[in-house]
Design brief:
The protein is of the alpha+beta class and 378 residues long. It folds into 3 domains: 101 residues, OB fold (Dihydrolipoamide Acetyltransferase, E2P) (Beta Barrel), CATH 2.40.50.140; 103 residues, OB fold (Dihydrolipoamide Acetyltransferase, E2P), CATH 2.40.50.140; 88 residues, Beta Barrel (OB fold (Dihydrolipoamide Acetyltransferase, E2P)), CATH 2.40.50.140. The strands form 3 sheets. It has a 5-stranded mixed barrel with strand order 1-2-3-5-4. Strands 7-8-9-11-10 form a 5-stranded mixed barrel. A hairpin with a 2-residue loop joins strand 13 and strand 14. The radius of gyration is 29 Å and the shape is globular.
Length: 378
């Protein structure tokens, strides 16, 4: 008797469990998708600073929060992607979307320059430039909108650029052709390579650096400010020269000295004489293999062995190798003429200090002065 009751109870429990499972399945199917998504908690992708997107993140999904700087559509009849320039406080990057995805995006979320957005895209490379690919229209959402007129007035107003002090690290493509005010310490003064060439002044601020150019006539009027080690404030126009951003100084009123160069007793790295046109040698050597495209205009010191040499214009190109990699070093005529040719042969050990340059897709270091090149004999 007890056995029969137990069997019946088990059958009832089994039947109730089956009905419960069926009821639960039906209930889940009838829950609206929005409520179902809320019920199933998905861990969000962490927001990534644009400057932190490097080769280690290629082929992964990256989420950024940034402002739309521009939207460039392909020409009529061109099947290329729509390019959306994004920028945050750390840098800028291009978000690309196929015309189909972009049209779907506009249908659900009209976007415009000035909008603050959150975007999720696949990190990849287009040549040497990193980019994000928007794979679906749902990968972008607007956090806040700015009217087109308001955005244009804000970014185009000269008074805004003149009155706001912009750090060197924040100078990017979004500022091209705009006048900005910035500060930096002069690490190098390079004389013109020819009669038609400008003076090139290297400004540094922490790990950031940029070159400022001015013509000889203007240099003669402001040269009292242009001593290595001086910290200066300049108002200049951001321009692009062979893919590298630089500043163009226009008038004598656009530069002032904030702090003078340390004397020889105060700083051993400034040069043999106060105001000498030399580059201070950083205390930390840079591994060649660690230099990437993001380092453009940053001053580095590399140590290695010359593996090859060849002529480039009126200068010379050296290939320098250390345990981590190899890179080209450019010695322009003003530097090369003051160095012994016997010290620049393959097999010689060498130390070079100068800014990183990206030329036609290849990284190189520009020796900024004769004193920036150290060999066994000097």
């Amino acid at each position: 008797m007890h056995l029969c009751h137990a069997i019946c109870a088990r059958c009832l429990c089994s039947a109730w469990s089956s009905r419960s499972l069926s009821f639960t399945a039906v209930l889940l199917l009838t829950i609206p998708s929005a409520r179902l998504e809320a019920a199933v908690k998905i861990a969000p992708v962490a927001k990534t600073d644009i400057a932190a997107i490097d080769d280690t993140l290629l082929d992964t999904t990256v989420e950024v929060e940034a402002t739309i700087k521009s939207i460039t559509k392909p020409n009529e009849g061109d099947n290329g992607p729509v390019r959306i320039k994004l920028a945050d406080d750390t840098g800028s990057i291009t978000l690309v979307a196929s015309p189909v995805v972009f049209d779907a995006l506009l249908a659900q979320t009209p976007v415009a320059a000035g909008d603050l957005i959150q975007a999720s895209g696949r990190a990849s490379k287009d040549g040497d430039q990193r980019q994000l690919t928007l794979q679906t229209a749902t990968g972008l959402r607007i956090l806040s909108k700015v009217g087109a007129a308001e955005f244009a007035a804000d970014t185009a107003s000269p008074s805004r650029a003149d009155k706001s002090l912009i750090p060197l690290a924040a100078v990017d493509d979004s500022l091209k052709d705009k006048s900005i005010t910035t500060e930096g310490t002069i690490s190098d003064v390079r004389e013109p390579r020819s009669e038609r060439a400008p003076f090139v002044i290297t400004l540094v601020d922490g790990s950031a650096s940029i070159q400022m150019v001015l013509w000889p006539e203007l240099y003669e009027q402001v040269k009292q400010h242009l001593r290595v080690g001086n910290t200066v404030q300049v108002t200049a126009t951001v321009s692009d020269f062979r893919g590298t951003l630089q500043l163009r100084l226009r008038t004598t009123q656009d530069i002032q000295t904030i702090a003078g160069a340390p004397s020889l007793t105060e700083s051993k790295g400034v040069g043999k004489l106060a105001g000498a046109k030399t580059t201070p040698t950083p205390a930390i050597k840079t591994d060649i293999g660690s230099i990437t495209n993001d380092w453009t205009n940053r001053t580095v010191t590399i140590t290695g062995t010359i593996t090859a040499t060849d002529s480039v214009g009126k200068g010379q190109r050296l290939r320098i190798r250390d345990a981590s990699g190899e890179i080209s070093v450019i010695l322009w005529e003003s530097v090369l003429s003051k160095l012994a040719s016997a010290d620049l042969l393959a097999g010689q050990a060498i130390i070079v200090t100068g800014p990183v340059n990206l030329y036609r897709g290849h990284l190189e270091v520009i020796a900024s002065s004769p004193e920036a090149v150290k060999t066994a004999n000097n």
